[in-house]
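2024-03-11 09:14:02 DEBUG pipeline.ingest accepted 1 chain
2024-03-11 09:14:02 DEBUG pipeline.ingest length=395
2024-03-11 09:14:03 DEBUG pipeline.predict start
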Amino acid sequence: MSTSLSCQIQLTIMGYDWGPSLRLIDLIFDERLKFDNIQIDQMDALIKKQLQITPVIIEKLESYPGTLRLTLQVHPTNSHLSPLIYDPKTKLHRFTSQFEAIISLNQPIETSIGTVDCLKVDEHQSQTYPNLSEIETGYYRFNHSHQLAYAIYDPKPIRPIPLIIWLHGAGEGGNDPNVVLLGNPSFRLKESPIQAAFGSAFVLYPQSPTFWMDDGYGKYTLKGSSFYAKALFGLIDNIVQKTPWIDRDRILIGGNSNGGFMTIRMLLDHPGYFAGAFPICEAFADRWLQETDRNSLKKESIWFNVSNDDNVVDPRLFTLATYESLAKDPEADIHLTLYEKVIDPSGLFQDAHKNPYRYGGHASWIPVLAGLSTARINNQEVSLFSWLASKKRTN
């Protein structure tokens, strides 16, 4: 006797180098229900994102009492699996509320209550984001004029630990700091092995309402200023002051693109405050630096990261020009990791020609957050995060 089954759907969305992707679809039935030798080709899966419906590839199908789990095939080019959308009006990414799975049977399945040939799926689908576990979010208001959203990872240790500040790129602004953690894989700062390099570290993820390079009129700065510079430092200081287990001598700052720009801006505005900095594909034009600025930056500990094929922010006019001018001083603690290109660090993804997948050259934050930033220092190969872990403010 054929019958239909009611179920609920839970979507598990994971963070990857290119952003978030739907990885698991759990069909949740009565917990007593069991399945008999169900196969992938008995099921079809579609994803509806906004108004677009796209078929997906089921990589694996597992059955447990009361649950069917579909593991989907993910890839950097599968944008239909991402709940993030780009808003052309704001030029920001945001999570869409119109994201759901459509599951159907194309063959009957055998269960402990008989043959089932139809699924009745609950309209409400829950979502879970494992990479956002242990994250707290909040808002900081500065002088009644600016409000910055932020996220923190606080391991609540029994001893003082360093603070890592991550500043996002241009597309991750807004009022939802989860976009900061998943839009690029900055969630890895709260996970091993980066946490292991520090023993433990507090992580702060500030979010600009628009973008860090905003001149106050919604335009990109033409001289290196930022509308949010004072508000950002106010947030940093607020977090430091109310968190007694943050080591005040081990405050570290870094970020990508716009966030790399803001890293340089913070170093210039607050000399000696940060123990170390790691700007990535930074967008602070070398021509904006005065001689006094260069002299100030030479006193900081900075590790630049960029890919030679970056076609968004020209390394020759930004990162490389600044690095070369600062590194001339033999006493300066200035370092560089220069990638020739950005290749999938996991080794799991290929392009259409079966070659290792290559990201756009601007995405040099991918190998950095994968722990692949190294440099030769004092005749030894040193990793970025072990170097940052060793930094301590001396003044």
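2024-03-11 09:14:41 DEBUG pipeline.report The domain at 134-390 is CATH 3.40.50.1820 (Rossmann fold).
2024-03-11 09:14:41 DEBUG pipeline.predict end
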